[in-house]
Amino acid sequence: xxxxxxxxxEIDRQRAETAATxxxxxxxxxxxxxxxxxxxxxGFVRVIDYMGDDAAVVQAARVSYGRGTKKVSEDKGxxxxxxxxxxxxxxxxxxxKFHVKLPIFVARQWIRHxxxxxxxxSARYSILDREFYVPAEExxxxxxxxxxxxxGDVLTGSEAAQVLDLLRTDATHVYDHYLAMLxxxxxxQKIDESRQGLARELARMNLGLNFYTQWYWKxxxxxxxxxxxxxxxxxxxxxxxxxxxxxxxxxxxxxPLTAEAFIEHRLHGVTLSKSAWGTIKRMLNGETVTQxxxxxxxxxxxxxxxxxxx
Amino acid sequence: xxxxxxxxxEIDRQRAETAATxxxxxxxxxxxxxxxxxxxxxGFVRVIDYMGDDAAVVQAARVSYGRGTKKVSEDKGxxxxxxxxxxxxxxxxxxxKFHVKLPIFVARQWIRHxxxxxxxxSARYSILDREFYVPAEExxxxxxxxxxxxxGDVLTGSEAAQVLDLLRTDATHVYDHYLAMLxxxxxxQKIDESRQGLARELARMNLGLNFYTQWYWKxxxxxxxxxxxxxxxxxxxxxxxxxxxxxxxxxxxxxPLTAEAFIEHRLHGVTLSKSAWGTIKRMLNGETVTQxxxxxxxxxxxxxxxxxxx
Amino acid sequence: xxxxxxxxxEIDRQRAETAATxxxxxxxxxxxxxxxxxxxxxGFVRVIDYMGDDAAVVQAARVSYGRGTKKVSEDKGxxxxxxxxxxxxxxxxxxxKFHVKLPIFVARQWIRHxxxxxxxxSARYSILDREFYVPAEExxxxxxxxxxxxxGDVLTGSEAAQVLDLLRTDATHVYDHYLAMLxxxxxxQKIDESRQGLARELARMNLGLNFYTQWYWKxxxxxxxxxxxxxxxxxxxxxxxxxxxxxxxxxxxxxPLTAEAFIEHRLHGVTLSKSAWGTIKRMLNGETVTQxxxxxxxxxxxxxxxxxxx
Amino acid sequence: xxxxxxxxxEIDRQRAETAATxxxxxxxxxxxxxxxxxxxxxGFVRVIDYMGDDAAVVQAARVSYGRGTKKVSEDKGxxxxxxxxxxxxxxxxxxxKFHVKLPIFVARQWIRHxxxxxxxxSARYSILDREFYVPAEExxxxxxxxxxxxxGDVLTGSEAAQVLDLLRTDATHVYDHYLAMLxxxxxxQKIDESRQGLARELARMNLGLNFYTQWYWKxxxxxxxxxxxxxxxxxxxxxxxxxxxxxxxxxxxxxPLTAEAFIEHRLHGVTLSKSAWGTIKRMLNGETVTQxxxxxxxxxxxxxxxxxxx
Lengths: 310, 310, 310, 310
Fold this sequence. Notes:
The structure is a homotetramer of 310-residue chains. Chain A is an alpha+beta fold. Chain A has three domains: 5-133 and 210-267, Gyrase A, domain 2 (2-Layer Sandwich), CATH 3.30.1360; 152-209, no CATH class; 274-309, no CATH class. Helices cover 46% and strands 15% of the residues of chain A. Chain A contains 13 helices and nine strands. Chain A has helices at residues 5-16, 27-30, 54-62, 72-84, 104-110, 157-182, 200-203, 221-231, 238-254, 256-267, 274-284, 291-294, 298-309, and strands at residues 19-21, 37-39, 43-51, 95-103, 117-120, 141-143, 151-154, 212-220, 270-272. The first copy, chain A, has a five-stranded antiparallel sheet. A two-stranded antiparallel sheet of chain A has the order 6-7. In chain A, helix 4 runs parallel beside helix 10. At the A-D interface, helix 5, strand 6, strand 7, helix 6 and helix 7 of A face helix 5, strand 6, strand 7, helix 6 and helix 7 of D. Strand 9 of chain A pairs antiparallel with strand 9 of chain C, so a sheet runs across the interface.
């Protein structure tokens, strides 16, 4: 369970408070505001705040004085048009803020997306909890043989058992020693009065990359979609994709028209090189095109074949 | 008057609508949401949307599960501490969206601040109105003699009259010819059926830099403060400073604690070089320090003297 | 001619100086370094400096200790792979700096690309030259009837003549009055000793959007490609596209492998929505698909038909 | 020693190659280009490439056609002026690229500076070396009692010995188990043919935050100074400050005038709040000001006293 009783109570308290606003409100997102959606074994994603809705995209595209929306069908058409033609600025007019708890190695991938605002829980300042990620057995994948950056089959039997055991044992040891170096017991007491305890900013270095951290992450809708197009993709590492998948669902609640257009044009859209598109056109003309004749390299040819079979 | 009757009606309609939200609400800003504050002769600033409040800054600094605020005095102390020590990320957790109408030459200065989101009214797509900036007589400054980038005394008499006349006459002519090239009358009718009319994206080039444009401008609180520290400063050009001054007032309504800390530590704070600070310390020790002995260049020395006299 | 004799002499002087460096050198770009390539009637683009070459992309992707390159064929394959899979960071490792002279209305489009560094010639500080853009007759396009943001046929006859006359006359007048307000003659002398002259930061507002400005514009290779993919595109306004076209040529000199991959995968690549791709696959299976059956809206359907005919 | 023989040979080979360029060259930086400066026990910083020099800052500020520099004294004056008045864009015209090897917990602080380009060595793709940071005894600081984010005295005796032992032992274990899970021996051989080996992207999570990673980090001079002003500061964590200190030295070689102005106005400059500056002025007028009378909070008062004593 990712939340302590106190944390859940704080969240419940905040969910119970309602105030009046003149701002645009997204009813779908209000329903689940502040609520923690569990991810992996100890992580979560929750929406802390948001600005704007589908109408705000339309409003910005029109630089209007009022709500700017016309009929739903017109708004929908405009949003699809903007998405298809890669207009980015109207989508930047919406903003969302998440609170995310995630393993450090996932956080390190995530933060490479730079056009977002981040406040991370500081292990220089505070002591981290004894919480680390151990994959479920069905996610214990072997190294892929064909793709140096990918996963192969799931490990089984004694190999799987040993891996899980090593991950658990090592994480337990490094955390025990983290506390020992800090000279702090689990409940925050000094262990040995004669010792000073190592500085927090140093002791943390003993922890593993599977330990959980947390942060506030705020991003505009355009950059959120960029993040999701990479991280909700089949090539993304499983441990970050599960976060992205939940965020796609939250996006559907927040801005349903934009989410639909995003899935249609970007997440499930297809990009082809000039030669790949030329190949398709020749095939549509009844020609049988081989890899050699296509002008495509072997890898790109295989990717195209895979797309055609999907 | 910067708004048409229709525009004012749209704004009034939107101001009248209220909905319930679980999000943080800033009561001071809600009072004036959507309202257009006049600037210069045809411009305005109005807040269209916002995310977060002073408590959101505190909440982010603590990466908390609930509101995160404690006593007001503690929150205030934390915000001052963050401001004094140049912590930027907690302030990035608040966001604000403005609708601004402004002369193009002001817009060109403004947009040099890149860490913001912008949607500008498109003169490729639409026709601009006959609205251009003419300075009030008391702002008709002569070129400064001492500072190539500054203003001197106010122009008077026939020189002032001639300048105002030229500005008005030229703007009127270029707008008349803009419509003529478009082959459109003021009320949107074709003037001459035998003509095609020049493309809008070309005709606009005849307009002057004093014509008004408008945009939606969205920025986080940290970058807003950076903008205001430069543009609400005495060295900023008058025509952009009047916008910044109103935005400082809006900031006081939105995040009063942060606004107070911003004014204290940044807007009215003082930065001294190592040598300037060394000079101050020698003076505090009773020494009489000359420019030569201070190690400061002439310009910096004069700036320091001015600061001491303020 | 866009350059004065003095400017050309300064450029020639700089082109004549050579020094030794241990850094990566791009021979193709060195050949034209500093050289001004004319654009429109008074504009130009010239490369002022650059960092890195194709090998730097490869080197960064491998985080290598030396040059990082292997065989040319392997480097080429890697660069195509990175481009196809939208890896952006290795391309960010190269940087280029341009000096560009361009009409203000073009500059206003250009600067919407925010991930670049800019230093613009300041009309607060200096006096602009009497240089303004007047389109060549073959570029004097009418407003498109079908597309509010596009151009239609070329204007001809008296309509063309009148437009050119208005553009020239108005620009001449506003510049004459700009000088009159500044109280400066063309050769920099005071006109009337009894006058003070309007501040430069104010007088500039009388100039039209077709006047030329200039700036230094520095950008990394990834963001340059993003700029070029939008501005060297057929939908871009002619007056910015001519700049982008020259920059594509300069890119070919600088990073030939990356330029080739960029043109293949992005500039001439094709992006299809999920439904458009589904339509293509049905057509490849021998099905005759109508717009109604495709699930595509009318506009997207027409765009797809146009792509198929290209 | 941070480099293998092969890596050193690659660096030496690259340092030996020289080519002719028309670009600006920084002689001081060329001398040490590619050279690895050791940091901590296994880390280093080395400059891989650069663009521009002090003259490029001047050139950009003047948007000039040639080198743009005048007398050294004028250039120096201009650079100091730009620094003092917080002009940022001319400094953005220079760019530098570093190759850095650093512990992961340091990398996590570093990457919070978002306005830079990064390519990190990928542990999804490759196997990390057995290299982890263990502090030298004189840097084994206790937790500060007064400042939750700071260091106190150096640990001694058995406490120090135990900490060092735990750090070394745990890092050794987690690395041994990392290889075991990968089913790879130290020299890259499969250990057990009957096993598949865990995917690299998963196995890495067992490693500690003190393991070394490396990256290419590219930044413009303005953002480099922002980074250095925070990380070469006395409040920065020691383990990142040692990197920043070396980078300040490299900056002195690269852009000596800018480095001098940076140290004078920013690194060793002083910023005071409105009330602190008011206090100073009252003191200069001979008044004895107490904390209560100053209007400053206790913390800020103490900081001001410390500044006065420095």
